[in-house]
Amino acid sequence: MRQTEISRKTKETDIKLSLCLEGGDISIDTGIGFFDHMLNSFATHAGFGLELKVKGDLYVDEHHTVEDTGIVLGKAFSQILKDKSSIDRFGSFYVPMDEALAFASVDISGRPFLVFDAEFPQEMCGQYNCAMTVEFMRALAYNAGITLHIKSLYGDNSHHITEAIYKAVAHALRLAVKENTSNKPLSTKGVL
């Protein structure tokens, strides 16, 4: 089973995470209802088991909670995938959500990079500032060591745009972490 558990405690957040790429229970509690909804959608659509408990300084705002969750989830992917052998490495996916359409493409390369192209007509979804979406994705990409491209092609509703993004990233990762029988990294260099 490709799985790991991580705990990370700072002066701003206390996070406990369990991730299994082969599936399992999903239990999310970050203290931000809409963020919980996005992470639940992410785990469900990726087919991952994800148990996550976050206590953050929400009296300040949601930034530390969202970004630190991305850091810990990224570190979990990095730990599980290690040398990146025996995986398909690449994944791309479009997700429509009513009037919104989002695209994500991932390369599990060991070279962290994020391209994020999305605008949100409404600033807030519940207690979640949509500007935190790029912060979460940046923290995830850089700590997982992946190249991640995200584009919202269009949409009028920030809830739909954000959810389409999280689901597109989930499906792209599901494809990229799929196991194969190569027993080596998918690279002409022989190593990633």
SSE layout:
Layout: E1 3-9, E2 13-20, E3 26-29, H1 33-46, E4 49-56, H2 63-81, E5 90-97, E6 100-107, E7 113-117, E8 124-125, E9 128-129, H3 132-144, E10 147-154, H4 158-176
Parallel strand pairs: 3-4, 7-10
Antiparallel strand pairs: 1-2, 2-4, 5-6, 6-10, 8-9
Structure keywords:
about 190 residues; alpha+beta; Ribosomal Protein S5, domain 2; 4-stranded mixed sheet; about 30% strand; lyase; histidine biosynthesis; Ribosomal_Su5_D2-typ_SF; ImidazoleglycerolP_deHydtase; amino-acid biosynthesis
Summarize the structure in words.
- Pathway: Amino-acid biosynthesis; L-histidine biosynthesis; L-histidine from 5-phospho-alpha-D-ribose 1-diphosphate: step 6/9.
- Its EC number is 4.2.1.19.
- By secondary structure, the protein is of the alpha+beta class.
- The chain has a single domain, classed as Ribosomal Protein S5, domain 2, CATH 3.30.230.
- The protein is 34% helix and 31% strand.
- The protein has a 4-stranded mixed sheet with strand order 1-2-4-3, covered by helices on one side. Strands 5-6-10-7 form a 4-stranded mixed sheet.
